[in-house]
């Protein structure tokens, strides 16, 4: 099988920013948790039918799209009166990296690139994913947007990160399945903004719009 390559100018790239959920890890875990598992628990706890719980939760979750609350386990724990972080443990067997992820991370390490995770995930959500996978070993820095009280949808975060961890946007690559995050990063000046379109074998691929994109992270490696 021929592997396609984006043929990135790797000699011009010294820093790699990577999203986590959907980009490195199967999004089915998160999707199934929020869309199926949590409504079931909420229905039982509140004597609602599953349909009622679904409607309530989906509307409530949707209302917070693109905000930091959407990703904040403390917010949902309080709003729903459920131990959200603890409940995530029940499904942790579903957490897994996409094919090609470990190979790509190993290559970045061998090439001595500065590798930074930038995730909107809450620290509690992050820790269960680092516990269940080996990906954490390959990062020089791991940033949760919650540390900056703003999501990647806010352009200011790229500047705030740079203040703490100096990087040159002109020599930086960002890989993300969140098109709004890619857009703010591009506006900030991050030169190589690439969409990760394969988020799960159980979900539709992301439409990358105007962004260059990959389905498997090995497509980022230099052509052999
Ligand atoms: Mg993501």
User: How many strands, which pairing sense, and closed or not: the largest β-sheet?
Assistant: 6 strands, parallel
Straight-line distance between termini = 13 Å
Give the full name of the CATH homologous superfamily of the largest domain: HAD superfamily/HAD-like
Contiguous runs where pLDDT drops below 50 for at least 5 residues: none
Multimerization status:
single chain
Run of helices and strands: EHHHHHEHEHEHEE
The average pLDDT value, as a whole number, equals 95
Distinct ligands, ions and cofactors found in the model: magnesium ion
Structure description:
The protein is an alpha/beta fold and 224 residues long. The protein folds into two domains: 10-27 and 96-220, Rossmann fold (3-Layer(aba) Sandwich); 29-93, no CATH class. Helices cover 38% and strands 12% of the residues. The protein has helices at 28-45, 50-63, 73-80, 84-88, 101-110, 123-132, 156-164, 179-188; strands at 15-18, 114-119, 141-144, 172-176, 192-196, 213-214. Strands 3-2-1-4-5-6 form a six-stranded parallel β-sheet, covered by helices on one side. β2 (114-119), α6 (123-132) and β3 form a beta-alpha-beta unit. α1 (28-45) packs across α2. The longest helix has 18 residues, at 28-45. It is globular. The two termini are 13 Å apart. The relative contact order is 0.20.
Main features:
Rossmann fold, alpha/beta, 224 residues, 6 strands, six-stranded parallel β-sheet, 12% strand, binds magnesium ion, globular
